Amino acid sequence: MITVLNDVGPRVAAFEASGEVTGEEYKRIVVPHIDNIAKQHDKVSFLLLLNTDIGNYDLSAWMKDIGVGFKYFSQWDRLAVVSDQDWLNKLSEVMGYVIPGNVKSFKRSELTQAKEWVSG
Question: 2-114: what fold?
Answer without folding.
Answer: Transcription Regulator spoIIAA (3.30.750)
